[in-house]
Design a protein that fits this description.
By secondary structure, the chain is of the alpha+beta class. The chain is 32% helix and 10% strand.
């Protein structure tokens, strides 16, 4: 179920509001990501990065989010000129939002190494649920990467466009 009120930004993580515009380079800014990780066990890892590295990671995570929905996202972009998939006017809403789940997925994915789409063997595809992922990192050797991507897909899944699929048994011969 989509919650377009409290789970959409602007929102607060215990100090200050964060906003996301159609032209932002990432779904979470440093202040939001620092607060997000500061409240979690990931804070030690996150604080090990300098601000430039954090921004690069947030941008790469946002790029991943923009690519992960196989059929795109529900709703309409706020602007035809925007560079990101969100903010969007979601069904039954009158204003464009970037849901909290998108920001949280961005913060979580920013902890991962090299999700920029430039992974080796990008021709290899692996399916996680209904999502196709590229690269050798999807071969299950990197369990942390697989778990993080699965969690992100779960957070974002409610916003995926779905194609109606009907199973029909076909007889042979």
């Amino acid at each position: 179920m989509i919650n377009n009120s409290a789970d959409s930004i602007p929102f607060s993580f215990g100090g200050g509001e964060s906003t996301h515009s159609a032209q932002s380079s990432a779904y979470a800014d440093l202040k939001v990501a620092d607060a997000y990780h500061g409240a979690r066990q990931s804070s030690t890892v996150w604080n090990g990065f300098d601000d430039e590295q954090k921004l690069q990671r947030l941008t790469s995570a946002s790029d991943f989010i923009d690519r992960v929905a196989p059929l795109g996202y529900i709703g309409q972009p706020e602007s035809v000129a925007q560079i990101r998939a969100f903010p969007r006017v979601l069904p039954d809403a009158s204003v464009a939002v970037t849901p909290y789940q998108v920001v949280a997925a961005c913060c979580e994915l920013a902890l991962l190494n090299d999700i920029s789409g430039s992974l080796p063997n990008s021709a290899d595809l692996k399916s996680i649920g209904s999502v196709l992922l590229k690269g050798e990192e999807c071969d299950c050797d990197n369990k942390e990467m697989l778990l993080a991507v699965q969690m992100a897909v779960l957070m974002l899944g409610q916003f995926f466009k779905r194609k109606s699929v009907h199973c029909v048994r076909l007889g042979r011969g």
